[in-house]
Amino acid sequence: MINTIARPRGRRTDRAGLALCPAVVSFFLILSGEAARAQPTFGPQGRATILENATVLSGSGETLEKAAVVIRGGVIEYVGPPIEVQGRTTRVDVKGAFITPGLIDVSSALGMTSTRSASPVNRAFDAFDRYNADVFREAFRNGITLMYLPAAGASGVVGTGAIVRLAPGEGGGWAGEVVKEDAALCIDLGSGESALRRLSTLESIRKAFKDARSYRESLETYDEELVEYEKKVKERAEKEAKEAKDGSPADKPAPGGAPTQQRPEQPRPAEGAKPEEKKDEVAKPKKPGADPGAEVLLKALDREMIVRIVADRSSDILNALDLAREFNLKIIIEGGSEAHLVARPLAEANVAVVLGSPLGPGLHRNDQHRRARNDAAAVLSEAGVKWALGSGAADGAQGRFVLFNAQMLASSAPEVDPLTLVTTEAAEFLSVSDRYGRLEPRRAADLVVWSGHPLEAGSRVLRVYVDGRLVFRDGESAQPNAGAEEE
Questions:
Q1: Most buried of the four, 50, 91, 105, 195, by CB within 10 Å?
Q2: pLDDT tens per residue across span 240-254
Q3: 171 and 111, same structural domain?
Q4: Strand, coil or helix: what is 340?
Q5: Residue 100 · residue 455 · CB < 8 Å
């Protein structure tokens, strides 16, 4: 936030009656409004990297010619006209190049290494090969620095997805950095399977949510019974303490001073026989066993975790909407090859769709993508359905060309800006726009240097910075913990 100082009305004087000189007024004005952005205050520690003489596409529609980007300590310090920076600096002249935020893939399968059986406790990051330099290099070659990875598995409740940043690891080696581990509950309705199988999958998902509800109810019942148990134990302890203080009722003298009649001696139980329980014995309730899978589903039932449902066929999408209504879930449709056919119900339910690679008419196919349309995004927009674009994780594609997908989609939707779609809008869709998706001060220093405008044919990635460190340079292999620039 930019701090502003109210402009003085006319000439002000201090207590001695001296007028504030124009130089002083100018000093205060520099600290306000637009001047504050042109005069950033840099921290004294650490070397700053200055990328100079570039055209900056900020990700929010703003274009800056012959601009500079200053990064230090993993964050962007300044974006704007050329500026002198004090302290240790590394200057990189990228004249003629374009700088953009790192691209964001809202649905990727890049680097996923295994497919396991469906289970709520599966986690996408566990199946991500975070030490595969080839994966990082291919992502960087296409400008990708951040991506959402769904859990991999069979149809049903698959697991939880993660948002991963392709950051170099500390101390050497690659290591994808988890931005958010449990970013979504992943469900697959199995649109590529038979109708009978899809129906069975749907019922298994409904049963899983019902079982999670029952698990919660058993915990709540246990808590109530435990409170009652502790209350009775306390009452009994107080009663026994009172009796001990007053003496046993059998030892008390009868009225008039005569001792009470002693109880007849009770026969001892036979050897090996179980002792009889007291009639007033209080039984402690048994706590239900832990169910980690149900705990994950409860987060979705409490709307603390969004649910991303892979569904391509229109019938499966409608089933997903019914599932959301029945269990009050916040859902996103993933894939959505036939989403345009049910655009109105999606709009009425306020459910967004993540589209994969824009496919042309698929009448020659006989699968769940047969009725896909390359203008699906335009149809969804016209109906008021929110949508985002990924590289196609729902199809199992190891997509690397998210910007190319955006350009293909924009060919049928001219109002779409492909670059904004896979930077600013993608960050907003993943709820990480506070740090990623734009080139602005105090945001993460994840940026890409292109040889030309990234939407022009022939443009290639020259450099990639993640967390302020140089991790990729055109013509060289990506190196973990790269970052040393020539001075």
A1: 105
A2: 888 888 875 555 555
A3: yes
A4: helix
A5: no
List, in order, residues 6 or more apart from 92 with CB less than 8 Å away.
49, 50, 51, 52, 485
CA atoms within 13 A on the CB side of 122: 25
pLDDT digits (tens, 9 = 90+) for 40-92: 444 445 789 999 999 999 987 789 999 999 999 999 999 999 988 888 889 99
Indicate the burial class of 132 (C-beta count within 10 angstroms; 0-12, 13-18, 19 or more): middle
Residue 84 lies in a domain: yes
E strands in 314-420: 331-335, 352-355, 387-389
What domain range includes position 136? 104-183
69 and 48 co-located in one domain: yes
The Cα 427–Cα 420 span in angstroms is 10
- Interacting residues of 415 by C-beta distance below 8 A, sequence separation 6+: 381
* 8 A C-beta contact, residue 448 and residue 53: no
Angle between helices 314-327 and 195-246 (to 10 degrees): 10
- Region for residue 205 given its phi and psi (left: phi exceeds 0; alpha: psi -120 to 50; beta: otherwise): alpha
Q: Which of 122, 154, 183 is the last residue of a domain?
A: 183
In-domain check, residue 92 = yes
What would the two tokens of residue 427 be? 């960050």
The whole-model pTM stands at 0.79
The answer as to whether 394 is a domain residue is no
In the chain, how many domains are there?
2
Q: 465 pairs with which residues across the strands?
A: 447, 470
**CATH number, domain at 49?**
2.30.40.10
Evaluate whether 57 touches 454 at the Cβ level (below 8 Å). yes
